[in-house]
Design brief:
This protein is 77% helix and 0% strand. By secondary structure, the chain is mainly α.
């Protein structure tokens, strides 16, 4: 058993050494390690520190995780502006969860310009990238004309796709939409 602990300790020491030497992926992994520690509150500032180093080097997962920390105020002072900045960086690299979260920030006007049109565009892109949550939000926007014209057919299409992806509320909304049409 002692060998296993020793090996894990050696692996962590190696990861720390690589992160400290400037390896962006090691920095991201070290941030992930601290964020997933047994007591994450105790290590969240360390996680944010290493995520930021990796994020500044362009690691999309670190950009997303750092944005999430700013969104929640975990290990950093909560800042919707910083969350938006880092979600945008990750979204530029095609991260569909970052697209979704950035869309939500635009929808709510938190840390970024409030814009139904921008939120709609981002939800569209995230939905087309496979985000089932974005599919649901896109359907809501088509149903209610938020950032786009009302379009019942597209609302039904996106509710259907979201339901296929496991979004329970989407199936209910699809049934309601069909009921309202008939």
């Amino acid at each position: 058993m002692g060998c296993v602990l020793s090996t894990k300790r050696d692996e962590l020491e190696d990861l720390i050494a690589r992160a400290e030497s400037g390896d962006p992926q090691a920095q991201a992994n070290l941030g992930f390690y601290y964020a997933r520690a047994d007591e994450p509150e105790q290590y969240s500032a360390r996680a944010a520190y290493w995520y930021e180093k990796a994020a500044r080097s362009g690691v999309a997962a670190a950009q997303y995780n750092l944005a999430d920390m700013y969104l929640r105020g975990a290990g950093v002072q909560q800042s919707f502006k910083q969350a938006g900045f880092w979600f945008e960086k990750a979204a530029e690299q095609g991260d569909c969860d970052a697209l979704f979260n950035l869309a939500m920030l635009h929808d709510q006007g938190k840390g970024v310009q409030s814009s139904s049109e921008k939120a709609f565009a981002l939800f569209s892109k995230a939905a087309e990238s496979g985000s089932t949550r974005a599919m649901y939000e896109l359907a809501i926007r088509y149903q209610n004309g938020l950032g786009t014209a009302v379009n019942g057919e597209l609302a039904a299409f996106w509710f259907s796709k979201a339901a296929e992806g496991g979004v329970r509320r989407a199936d209910e909304m699809l049934q309601k939409l069909k009921h309202d049409v008939s």
